[in-house]
């Protein structure tokens, strides 16, 4: 059986969905991130658990 040289037919991907802009909440989030002084405050703003370690909070942005 010979190899077929025609390209495979694939489904076209759907157009990308644009995220909804929420200017008020985005501005508030940016302000809270700018006011955060350490890595645990940044983690709290974005909803992550605190960063802990044997020698205290670790810096991980």
Explain this structure.
The protein has helices at 23-35, 39-46. By secondary structure, the chain is mainly alpha-helical. The model has no long low-confidence stretch (mean pLDDT 75).
Report on the biggest sheet: none
Total number of helices: 2
**Element-by-element helix/strand order:** HH
Helix content: 25-40%
Distance between the termini: 57 Å
Overall, the morphology is elongated
Which blocks of ≥5 consecutive residues have pLDDT under 50? none
- How many E strands? 0
Layout: helices, strands, pairs:
Blueprint: H1 23-35, H2 39-46
Protein traits:
single chain; 61 residues; mainly alpha; elongated
Task: Provide a compact summary of the structure.
The chain has 61 residues and is mostly helical.
């Amino acid at each position: 059986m010979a190899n077929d040289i025609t390209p495979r037919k694939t489904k076209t991907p759907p157009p990308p969905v644009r995220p909804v802009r929420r200017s008020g909440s985005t501005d508030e989030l940016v302000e809270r991130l700018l006011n955060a002084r350490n890595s645990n405050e940044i983690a709290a703003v974005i909803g992550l658990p605190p960063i802990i370690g044997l020698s205290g909070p670790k810096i991980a942005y």
